[in-house]
């Protein structure tokens, strides 16, 4: 008899508690360091807390991957249940998390690690796909192979309201920041072969930019209708989210639009009012 399969992710997948419970997905948290405090990225410290703290003292947190032994302990507890594991991580080109997980899995049987080549709910889309494949009877090895083939069809992109946090984290120059501010540019970033790249620049009020960005991303694209994510870093007006949810359904016929708020890893690099629409293409 085939062993059951459990899907696991690291905390950068930004899955809501409701989706984790619905699909039986388990999460290993990264570690957050803020000043002299170190704590797990388990959702207790939110993007709202992060921005409040930054406005008070200008500090941004640092995140670190779990260690090899932490992964071994995490996987071992699940293996004791008689299950196999398909584990997904943030892109290996953005974090060392996947490489650590892979090293841990090499000492265990029944753990299949997948480099999602994505971040945030781009990882979540693959985790949900894995759970649905499991529920259709696919085994762990087959699911992992399927995800490796499918990940190139995941569209992960975001539009930023400010480059201040990218600059603070050393991911853009002061000249770039100044130029963007003077021209009131709102850059759009996407994942391409595991890396983040700027692929478009918008101008204007961020609420108007959201609408144009969503339209550009979804029109004339063959979007899988089952699951589309609207993922924000925080501080987006709820009324705007409702409007954009309707726009997504109009543009691509999405059956489920999941609204999620990104955790500290994404929020600390992109700043408030960052917003993305993420989906899998047919």
Topology:
Blueprint (H helix, E strand, L loop, with lengths): L4 E6 L6 H7 L2 E3 L2 E4 L2 E4 L6 H11 L4 E3 L3 H12 L4 E6 L7 H9 L5 E5 L5 H15 L4 H11 L3 E2 L1 E3 L4 H5 L5 H10 L1 E8 L2 E9 L2 H13 L9 E5 L5 H15 L4 E5 L2 H7 L4 E6 L2
Parallel strand pairs: 1-2, 1-6, 6-7, 12-13
Antiparallel strand pairs: 3-4, 3-5, 8-14, 9-10, 10-11, 12-14
Helix pairs in contact: 3-4, 5-6, 9-10
Describe the structure.
By secondary structure, this protein is α/β, with parallel strands linked by helices. It has two domains: 5-30 and 65-151, Rossmann fold; 156-280, 2-Layer Sandwich (Hypothetical Protein Tm841, Chain: A,domain 3). 41% of the residues lie in helices and 24% in strands. It contains eleven helices and 14 strands. The chain has helices at residues 17-23, 47-57, 68-79, 97-105, 121-135, 140-150, 164-168, 174-183, 206-218, 238-252, 264-270, and strands spanning 5-10, 26-28, 31-34, 37-40, 62-64, 84-89, 111-115, 154-155, 157-159, 185-192, 195-203, 228-232, 257-261, 275-280. The strands form four sheets. A four-stranded parallel sheet has the order 2-1-6-7, with helices on both faces. The longest helix is centred in the middle third of the chain and has 15 residues, at 121-135. Residues 170-183 have low confidence and may be disordered.
Question: Gist?
Answer:
The protein has 282 residues and is α/β, with parallel strands linked by helices. The chain is built from eleven helices and 14 strands. The chain has a four-stranded parallel β-sheet, with helices on both faces.
